[in-house]
């Protein structure tokens, strides 16, 4: 399963919505309930699912789902 | 100098525009900075020294923190690499800038409050002889909360490498002091202004839109906010009040504060446009919000995003320990502990940012708690199936109740007002006197106009997007009516200019 597909499942779980279909261009404005408060849930869910850790700087620069996928892939590559 | 005063509308603004447009293109930022210092110094010239001093410190600190050692003294400064090891000079410059700005804010805004509370604590402990007496009463320089936040955001952005430190002192001084935003915001970020400071278009469309923003903003202030303010003042200052009048008075204040502050923001946006600057929306129909988080995405956006970026997010991460992470996962994200705790802390700080007093703390904490509790509601909650109008109502009422703290002189008066709203105290002889004032047809009309504008009229932002002759006629008609009212009635200062 590629990162996009697995990430889509996480989005559906965190935002409690089985109709979510993310793309690389998806931003917080496109997902109902994705705000600075619920963002914490998303980050923790992603960290746990991929067994990686993000720091504040990693996530601060994220502008869309594409950048989140790149960040996950980078962290996974760093882990080896 | 208030935006709604004769001196601003008929003397300062026309003269400022004339000087600005007569100045050569290269000298326009300098002209605008000079005009802003004149504007700021109008009430108290000494305050300009404070503004200039803090601007200078922030400017040089940003240069010191961003410029790599041995870099040439000219040319564009690269974005700072946050991962690169920082030298002692760079770290020192960053912390000096933050400390200098915040200590300025703390000293001028919270010194008196701190002393008063210390004295009452000492009195409670029976240590009256240790109380501070006859100390200097510090006057709050206008706009300090706003321009300090602008400079703190610049320093952090430069430090984090999201904006380049500027070498152009005039541009930076122009950004900090820009008179339309100086007294009550919006807290515009440097990164939104950097390119516009370097070069911007001056078009007749922009100028016309700016003028419409000004006209509509002035009308909101003079024709709606000020009469509602009279109702709110009467109710909040009344010795006794029956329940209906208390609710009516709170509704008046709820509308007053929105119209007063959004009018100021409209006028600030309008004046900025007249000088060629485009700034982001500060209000987005906040009373149409259907949750508290939604309210804060729509109310005073420049402040809420500032708090989100520089306080909420870092605090959230600090609270995200391994144990908390594991617990959140175990409980299937039902409880977002860091966000709940951060909301309460950040909004309490938001409260005290507005003013040094316990009622502001209570207002902020109430919003923090409401936001935190709201996190417990999932997307599948039946709340989201309610009609939108009902959800708006369920947001509007608690937001209005919180304004009691914002308006009341102290906590005792706030709780007294809540008491009146819920029928504690019964009817009194004075009630008829209050009713005789607040239910005058002029005030009832203002209330109705406010309600229609809040819940069904287009925003000024959208109304002015494309101007027609008909819309222009509306704007100028309202301008004339506002000026006529200004001449015949006393008007009050903008509420947010006190922060």
TrEMBL record, chain A:
<dbReference type="InterPro" id="IPR036736">
    <property type="entry name" value="ACP-like_sf"/>
</dbReference>
<feature type="domain" description="Carrier">
    <location>
        <begin position="1"/>
        <end position="76"/>
    </location>
</feature>
<dbReference type="InterPro" id="IPR009081">
    <property type="entry name" value="PP-bd_ACP"/>
</dbReference>
<protein>
    <submittedName>
        <fullName>Acyl carrier protein</fullName>
    </submittedName>
</protein>
TrEMBL record, chain B:
<protein>
    <submittedName>
        <fullName>Putative alginate O-acetylase AlgI</fullName>
    </submittedName>
</protein>
<dbReference type="InterPro" id="IPR004299">
    <property type="entry name" value="MBOAT_fam"/>
</dbReference>
<dbReference type="GO" id="GO:0016746">
    <property type="term" value="F:acyltransferase activity"/>
</dbReference>
<dbReference type="Pfam" id="PF03062">
    <property type="entry name" value="MBOAT"/>
</dbReference>
<dbReference type="GO" id="GO:0005886">
    <property type="term" value="C:plasma membrane"/>
</dbReference>
<feature type="transmembrane region" description="Helical">
    <location>
        <begin position="35"/>
        <end position="60"/>
    </location>
</feature>
<feature type="transmembrane region" description="Helical">
    <location>
        <begin position="335"/>
        <end position="354"/>
    </location>
</feature>
<feature type="transmembrane region" description="Helical">
    <location>
        <begin position="92"/>
        <end position="111"/>
    </location>
</feature>
<dbReference type="InterPro" id="IPR051085">
    <property type="entry name" value="MB_O-acyltransferase"/>
</dbReference>
<comment type="similarity">
    <text>Belongs to the membrane-bound acyltransferase family.</text>
</comment>
<keyword id="KW-0812">Transmembrane</keyword>
<dbReference type="InterPro" id="IPR024194">
    <property type="entry name" value="Ac/AlaTfrase_AlgI/DltB"/>
</dbReference>
<keyword id="KW-0808">Transferase</keyword>
<keyword id="KW-1133">Transmembrane helix</keyword>
<feature type="transmembrane region" description="Helical">
    <location>
        <begin position="442"/>
        <end position="461"/>
    </location>
</feature>
<feature type="transmembrane region" description="Helical">
    <location>
        <begin position="169"/>
        <end position="190"/>
    </location>
</feature>
<feature type="transmembrane region" description="Helical">
    <location>
        <begin position="473"/>
        <end position="496"/>
    </location>
</feature>
<feature type="transmembrane region" description="Helical">
    <location>
        <begin position="389"/>
        <end position="406"/>
    </location>
</feature>
<keyword id="KW-0472">Membrane</keyword>
<feature type="transmembrane region" description="Helical">
    <location>
        <begin position="132"/>
        <end position="149"/>
    </location>
</feature>
<feature type="transmembrane region" description="Helical">
    <location>
        <begin position="360"/>
        <end position="377"/>
    </location>
</feature>
<keyword id="KW-0012">Acyltransferase</keyword>
